Amino acid sequence: SIPLNLSLSGKINPSACIFCSSSGAGGWSPMVTDQEPWLQVDLREQMEVTAVATQGRYDSWDWVSSYLLLYSDTGRAWKQYRHEDGVGRFVGNGNSETIVQNKLSHPVRTRFLRFVPLDWNPSGWMGLRVEVYGCSYKSYVADFDGRSSLLYRFNQKSMSTVKDVISLRFKSHQAEGVLLHGEGQRGDYITLELHRGRLDLYLNLDDSRARFSSHRVPVTVGSLLDDQHWHSVHIERFNKQVNLTVDSYTQRFQTKGEGHSLEVDYELSFGGIPLPGKPGTFLRKNFNGCMENLYYNGINVIDLAKRRKPQIHSVGNVTFSCSQPQLVACTFVSSSSSFLSLPSASPGAGGFSIRFQFRTWNPEGLLLSVQLNPDPQKLRLQISNSWLRLTLHMGRKNSLLTGRNLRQNQAQGGAGDGLWHSVSLDARNLQITLTVDNEPSSTIELWEQVQSRGSFYFGGCPATAPDCQGFAPAFQGCMQLIFINSQLMNLSHVQQGLLGNYNELQFDTCNIKDRCLPNLCEHGARCSQMWSSFSCDCSGTGYAGATCHNCEHFVSLSFLHLLSKPPLHPLHRPIYSRSKVWTVLSHNSTAPVTVQTSSLQKPHVMIFNYSASAEQLRAIVSGSEQCQQEVVYNCRKSRLFNTKDGSPLSWWLDREGEKRSYWGGFLPGVQQCSCSLEENCIDMNYFCNCDADTDTWANDTGVLSYKDHLPVSQIVIGDTDRMGSQAVYHIGPLRCYGDRSIWNAASFYQESSYLYFPTLQAELASDISFYFKTSAPSGVFLENQGLKDFIRVELSSPSVVTFSFDVGNGPAVLSVKSHVPLNDRQWHYVRAERNAKEASVQVDQLPLRFLEAPADGHLRLRLSSQLFVGGTASQQRGFLGCIRSLTVNGVSFDLEERAKMTPGVSAGCPGYCTGSSSLCHNRGRCVEKSNGYICDCSQSAYGGTTCNQEVSVSFDRESSVTYTFQEPFSVMQNRSSQASTSSTDSRAREDVALSFVTSQRPAMLLTVSTFSQQYIAVILATNGSVQIWYHLQTDKKPDVFTPTPSNLADGRLHRIRIHRVGKNLYVQDIHRKYTLSSDAELILIRSLTLGKVARMEHFDEEVIQGASKGFIGCLSSVQFNHVAPLKVALTNRGSSLVTIRGPLVQSNCGALAESHTLQGKTSTSMTLMIYLFRLTNTRKDLAVIAGVVTAVVFITVCALAVVIRLVYQQRRAQRSSGSIKEEHRHSMYTDYRTELHLHNPVRDSVKEYYI
Within 10 A of 261 (CB to CB), how many other CB atoms are there? Predict the structure, then answer.
């Protein structure tokens, strides 16, 4: 431990030691009147601190349960210590005697430490005994004043190095400055520079493009490095590989160009880039601050300079002690209540002047407010949309000055740039002058001289100053060097209560934090930030979500999604057949290849490159129900196997590069061809046609279907070197269909049973999705634990799914309550996600539940145990039922394979709603019956046996469909039912979905109006873009959102899904989230109208324009909450709920538009196939072409006959459907075991549906 000196905000027992054993006495406790107590430790000299420990006050009820740790070189300017994940809170004591030690994840070199209590024993008071652990270290310091530098000169003319190691520590209050520079005549250079508070490294190794380029691109690391605190830099280079580390952040990269060595002529300069022959003159802004322990390839540069060695030349005044000014700052913590009130210093009759510096991330905030004489004039300086605006309020007349944009030239693009900005305000000589960052001033001319009246309010206003309220949100950020009438304000006096007043301020520190370092946005997404939060722009990444974690791309209709990796290359194409959707991935050798003169010594080798990465290929193959690849081998005197010993003469390599010598039709290891399996080889003495070794052409064609070996990565041909030998081969594309993971299921029938998998990789983000069905009232779906952290998804009661986790901030719990029981033996979908910004959980079609992550909490979920599925490590609260399609972070888990070797669990899941043929689509509900199932489409906008048939209607300009909500009783009933569906969340909500095809603009798609003059409208504007209007408060303007600016009146099918919860509005298909101005609910809904609107008295002008134009085109699959108005209009023509005006024709326009889109996607490949056919057949006669046409016509007629027969059989099956008996209910356990032994053939019995 380190000896301690103390500085206290409270008092200490003079006979007490600061850290004592249980036999000692004493400790520190602050005065009860001390509002902001702290305990400060002076280590007497710079030390490297590695750990701290605390204890409560001896034999008392006084201890500190959590605290902050600040450190400083001088005891004036302080910086908060943060752990690796950015958390600043330290865990303290739970009693007065136990010693709690906290090891620092990264040691700090400092002299002063300050312990700031946050929480303490509620039954006692604060009490501390502390000990600090660490060691001393040797320090070599140099001070650069902005006009000086050190030159390290080489012994020879130039220095060429293959390996470089450069390390140093620096601190500065300037955001710009060159730390080191070197260059050579070959064009090599290295420059390390502070730029906008970040560290840029420019490095070129013999790259002529970079040498002559006017725009050099640096590698950038770090942020907020102009904070007057020490930062460590370490550069390691070996050949072209470079590691650049600033503090605890490392950037690894590879230099461009051909060179492997860095060639520097004459010298390296530190602190600036001086012009040759002109000492003290610099090409770029030089460094102003201190450097410590500067080493270049093991050479202590500062030590050589201090000892005046001839290798070092000093330019300007370089001193060897750090004398940088300590600028004391204060932090405005709250965006609503922080303020600093200061009196006018020596006010004069000639006006007043104010100067200060500030930094922030926020684009809005009040910087300064002051009352003026003559009354009632007021002066306001505020940040508005990242611009500085000065407003002089003179009763009814205002004057406005605009300063510079604080975001200009901002590389990171956040709200505010986080840099220090200086502001000077001068009210003298009948004018008010505003100067920002020493740029040209802006001026307001006055009729009479003004003087300040009362106090100056910085950052916000107290509640006792109503004239100051309501102009802008309070400032969140830092301020320093506040001058009033040229006098520097002593902030220490403010803190001590000797000067001015304040609220929600932190003194002696600028506690700004870069929340985009490290960038928690995934997949290269762009990060932007505010003072207490960050956001991710996922545009162009192919991913979505709060941190761009969720993949947006789909492989084809047969796959849910790919792995959580870069999306699939667009060269794959889906092939549609009558019963299956095939995903086809082609490679680089699609044409037949002719081979001659190849032998085992010099074989012919062809490597196949596919239109997807190896990882994506593996995901597609393993996730498919079936994959296959055709191999065609035409031969003449070219064998596949040696007829003497059976060794292969030709072979292929699988996806892992393993040699394979079996050809289609056989399992791995059997060196035979498909003709042997089919017993039709031309010579039955051989297992392959080509092994007969005849002078005539033979063929061995087969289909490879063993998935673990697909696709073919390489083929080797080795027997075409004899006279007359020749081979022609063709490897077809990889073809896969089905998604194996969708019905990959496991059944759990013992509470103590579970499946286990490797530890969940979920440190910063994870998403979990699965389906379940059960008759049990509760059970854990999955759980993974760490030392303290955990993550769990469970059915906590028959109608509640709970997602809980702990990342170190205490347990977080998200629950979704369904209005119907979830243990109804029907399939239910669950999706849970956690990332650095938020957590969410969704069950079926119920609204998402969100929970925001704490702004300064722990981020990393640290797990160590196995992942348990269907149970827990304690073998308690296990799940009874079925789980299927379990996917974690895009990876599907093979439940069936693991279930085969686990007692109490069986592979697969019984029941009628488990097979893909029995799924009900589009919110349709599959209802289990004893001898069949039905699809309940009553809650769906679709119809048909499986709720997948579009309900479409063609409109003209005068057409409209109005659905009238029953009132007053039914309206109230509807509201109560809506409330019951979300009893845990009483916020207003709506769900809107529709599809449309039109070329008209403007046009009215949908309106919902209420008796209280509220309305929702979805229209196409004059430019064809969709506009969503929400008018919830009749005394205010409506909220208008345009999710996409593109023209949707293009004759194509477009789908829109809108979901509102409170103030949050989600446009789901376009992946947009908006915030409404109100969270009010729709009170007494009157009607919903599609097309032209007759009653328009409460609509805004633009809505009226669209409503009057009506709608010309096709509307389909329209749904508002649980109402499907088109479906009601077509199936209940006489209903009093529906009013139809104008011509209204039922059609299949929605399905036709979708099929046209599908045809557009496949037409290119079909045209290409026809074109290739023509190219390869130009020399054939017309009779062959006529034969091909005849074959195509014949195939078309056959396909039509098959379709007609299928339709006939389906209708016949529907007419012959029998009645369904209700199954008997037994106890939960007996019921479920009986369900496990049901036989699948019964699934083909009666299928019923109702709409």
Answer: 17
Q: H or E element: which one contains 529?
A: strand 526-529
CB contact at 8 A, 892 and 741: yes
Contact between residue 328 and residue 509 where contact means Cβ atoms under 8 Å apart: no
Beta strands at 198-204 and 593-595: parallel, antiparallel or unpaired: unpaired
């060179």: which residue's tokens? Answer: 259
Helix%, strand%, coil% for the chain, nearest 5: 10, 40, 45
Which residue reads 């400055």 in tokens?
177
Alpha-carbon span 803 to 851, nearest angstrom: 11
Which of helix, strand or coil describes residue 714?
A: strand
Q: Which amino acid is at 658?
A: E
For the domain made up of 942-967+987-1146, the CATH class stated in words is mainly beta
Residue 352 DSSP SS3: strand
Q: Mean of the pLDDT values across residues 1010-1027?
A: 91
- Does residue 1105 come out as left (phi exceeding 0), alpha (psi in the -120 to 50 range) or beta? alpha
Angle at 524 (CA atoms; ends 518, 528), nearest 5 degrees: 55
Chain position carrying tokens 């992942």? 867
pTM above 0.85, yes or no: no
Q: Give DSSP secondary structure letters for 996-1062.
A: EEE--SSEEEEEEEETTS-EEEEEE-TTS-EEEEEE--TTSPPEEE-S--S---SSS-EEEEEEEET
| Top-level class of domain 744-907 | mainly beta
Class at the top of the CATH hierarchy for domain 517-548:
mainly beta
Residues 445-501: tens digit of each pLDDT: 888 888 888 899 999 988 777 666 666 788 999 999 999 999 999 998 998 889 999
Look at residue 569 in the predicted model and tell me its pLDDT.
Answer: 41
Cβ neighbours for 577, distance < 8 A, ≥ 6 positions apart: none
* Least confident stretch, 965-974, 1112-1121, 1159-1168: 1159-1168
Pick the CATH number of 141-206+217-315 from 3.90.550.10, 2.60.120.200, 2.60.40.10, 2.60.120.380: 2.60.120.200
Q: pLDDT tens digits for 623-635? A: 787 888 999 999 9
Instruction: Give me the residue label for tokens 């029998």.
Output: 1218
User: Going by C-beta distance under 8 Å and a sequence separation of 6 or more, which residues neighbour residue 687?
Assistant: 641, 671, 672, 673, 675, 676, 681
Higher-scoring residue by pLDDT: 152, 1239: 152
Token pair recorded at residue 1150:
């929605």
Mention the CATH class of domain 582-738.
mainly beta
C-beta of residue 948 within 8 angstroms of C-beta of residue 923: no
Kindly list the distances between the CA atom of residue 418 and the CA atoms of 14, 224, 386, 530, 751, in Å, as whole numbers in the listed order.
44, 7, 11, 10, 55
- Contact between 455 and 313 (Cβ < 8 Å): no
Report yes or no: 827 and 864 within 8 Å, Cβ to Cβ.
no
Alpha-carbon distances of 1144 from 389, 959, 1055, rounded to whole Å: 57, 6, 21
Cis peptide before 1002 (omega within 30 of 0): yes
What is the pLDDT of the chain when averaged over all its residues?
81
The four Cα atoms 1175, 1181, 1183, 1188 give a dihedral, to 10 degrees, of: -10
pLDDT surpasses 60 at 1161: no
